[in-house]
């Protein structure tokens, strides 16, 4: 079942090169990303305290997270993420396209 999204979350692409894609996501209360699947493993770092409501085919989970807290996920899981907080939240998402590229300093 899909979230009743008030409005879409707002992605701001910060880096997109051969090594990584880094996106800042800003969510008003009730905003959601929409169903999607990552083609690469990724990390999320919270910029604010908040509750992420995450839907997968297995169901929905509410995940309370603090500013500075992070987690990682493997590629390939279809999901939707909604702000379950009563205030705006934001996080940085880092998708790793080529781990070997992380050993080389950026130009």
From TrEMBL:
<feature type="domain" description="Cupin type-2">
    <location>
        <begin position="24"/>
        <end position="94"/>
    </location>
</feature>
<dbReference type="InterPro" id="IPR011051">
    <property type="entry name" value="RmlC_Cupin_sf"/>
</dbReference>
<dbReference type="InterPro" id="IPR013096">
    <property type="entry name" value="Cupin_2"/>
</dbReference>
<dbReference type="Pfam" id="PF07883">
    <property type="entry name" value="Cupin_2"/>
</dbReference>
<dbReference type="InterPro" id="IPR014710">
    <property type="entry name" value="RmlC-like_jellyroll"/>
</dbReference>
<protein>
    <submittedName>
        <fullName>Cupin domain-containing protein</fullName>
    </submittedName>
</protein>
